[in-house]
Amino acid sequence: MENERSFLEYLRDFSETSSPLDFVLIYDNLGKFFEGALVTLQLTFLALFIGGLIAIPLAIARAYRKPGLNQVIWGYTYAFRGTPLLVQTYLLYFGLGQFEAVRTSFLWDPILSDPWWCVLIAFTLNTAAYTTEFLRGAIETTPKGEIEAAKACGMSPLTRMRLVELPSAFRRALPAYSNEVIFTLHGSVIASTVTLQDLLGVGRWLNGRYYLAYEGFVTAMLFYMAIVFLISLGFKYAERRYLGHLQPREVDPSERAPIAA
Amino acid sequence: MLSQWGLVSQAPAAPVLDPQDWTRLMDLIFEYRQILIEGTMVTISLAILSLVLSVLFGLVGAFAKLSPSRGIRRMGNLYTTFIRSVPELVLMMLIFYGGQAMLNDIGQATGLWGYLDVNQFIAGVLTLGFIFGAYMAETFRGAILAIPSGQIEAAKSVGMNPRQVFALVTWPQMVRYALPSFTNNWLVLVKATALVSVIGLHDLVWNAFSAGRSNHKLFTFMFAVLVIYLIITAISDLVLRWVDRKYSVGERRA
Predict the structure, then answer these.
(1) Whole-model pTM?
(2) Which residues, given as ranges, of chain B have pLDDT below 50?
(3) Cross-chain Cβ contact A182/B212 below 8 Å
(4) Which end of chain B has a smaller Cβ tally under 10 Å, C or N?
């Protein structure tokens, strides 16, 4: 208790005299920032999870060039990858209300009039489009030998997909997926433009309320940096675990055999 | 069945895609073509200026990351890691609001200038250039590393100075190796320009949003924005593919 008060006093003193940032204000609102971080993480990971589930069958259909289906899915991914996420979100959240049919439908009240759901739908469709494309690439580059071996073992196409092609494609897609996760996190700031209190939303709220220029944004920025750091750490671990066989082998110099004289 | 679920409007007079309705919406877009075109121009010039700035930042960053000096290398890595970990919009708001406050604080402290208003366009160009400079730095670094070092040594051995080495050996090949990733960065940059509407620049998204709101036809206008963006990305895809073909003359393609 004594310790905490002296820390706060130090913080107040530092904020008032030498620092351009008001750390006491940030400290007082830290709880709000954690709530914002929760909203950001929830949206990001729900979108990634649902988007990933959607992307798997779409990527398989694209990789195997199912006639008809392939073109339709290509149209979907092209449209979503060629346009800004901000506009997609606006289209869903502000645009759908234009239609009488949507406003009177059963989906309107709980879902389509709620910014949280609109943002989640937009993010999910967006990330599913990107995931589909690089997962398709990963499936298409499955080594021929693996497929032939699976056929030789008498696997049905479904079993082959489940046991051979998808697991190896997932591994190959891992580095691209770490980018996709980080980009989805970056994209999630768009939630704050449709009134949601995510991390950036809390930062904007704080700056607006106390008429500040730095504090809210800097704090939000530090939170984002911490989250990205943790995500990269997780992926680095995952890549060591699942792609370890591809890494260059490190030879300990002390164990290297001495060159025979 | 559909009307039972409420998917189809109860009032039969207003189906979603009546042909007459459709022409009315097209007429509405046509009526507002002026501000849509103006917005598109703002968006395109913003994107191109940011691209130029990002190429400059990217070249500096790439050479910093490849510098023999450890301190400069570390600065380059700090730059790219920092940008990768902060969302564009956060940085944009920090530069727009925070930069303005900082400029005015400095002006007040030194008395060199009075109250300054930072222009949204300049803030947008600076932020996007700075952010995509980091991605460009990664692109260029990879491309420079892909050039066999023997060629640079050969160029030096025939007596070229560093400027000639860059202009005659490094640059032409760097463009070839960097182009696929450069194309990707450009497409992401074009899409990121939409964010500048959030800090109030009257770009395509902002203009279409205000037009749509005053008519209660936001879907129509936002859809028009999507189509315009799609056209921009499709055209740049075609152009850059042409450039790629031009620069990979003599290259064997798998």
Answers:
(1) 0.85
(2) 1-15
(3) no
(4) C
Range of the domain at B44: 21-246
Higher local confidence (pLDDT), B172 or A166: A166
**Residue B32 resides in a domain:** yes
Nearest to A100 among B11, B88, B187 (CB): B11
Residue with tokens 């959240």: A93
DSSP for B131-175 reads: HHHHHHHHHHHHHHHHS-HHHHHHHHHTT--HHHIIIIIIHHHHH
Q: Per-domain residue ranges for chain A?
A: 21-243
pLDDT digits (tens, 9 = 90+) for A1-46: 556 667 777 777 777 766 677 788 888 889 999 999 999 999 999 9
**Tokens 């917005």 appear where?**
B39
Burial class (CB in 10 A: 0-12, 13-18, 19+), A16: exposed
B194/A84 CB distance under 8 A:
yes
3-state SS class at A40: helix
Flag whether B164 is in a domain.
yes
For residue A220, the chain B residues in CB contact (below 8 A) are 90
Query: pLDDT tens digit string along A172-190?
Result: 898 889 989 999 999 999 9
ipTM of the prediction: 0.83
CB contact under 8 A, B230 and A82: yes
Whether residues A100 and B230 touch (CB distance < 8 A) is answered with: no
| pLDDT tens column, A199-250 | 999 999 998 888 888 889 999 999 999 999 999 999 999 988 888 777 766 6
Is A21-243 assigned to CATH 3.40.50.720?
no
User: Which of A33, A80, A86 is the best substitution to test chain B (most B C-beta atoms within 10 A)?
Assistant: A86
**A79 touching chain B per CB within 8 A:** yes
**DSSP secondary-structure letter at B217?**
-
Biggest CA pair distance of chain B: 83
Our CA-based measurement puts residue A169 at a distance from the nearest CA of chain B, in whole angstroms, of: 22
pLDDT for res A4: 63
First-residue to last-residue Cα distance in chain B: 54
Q: What pLDDT score was predicted for residue A118? A: 92
Q: Which residue of A has its CA nearest to B220?
A: A95
Q: Is residue B234 part of a domain?
A: yes
Q: For residues B216 and B37, give the distance between their C-alpha atoms in angstroms, rounded to a whole number.
A: 20
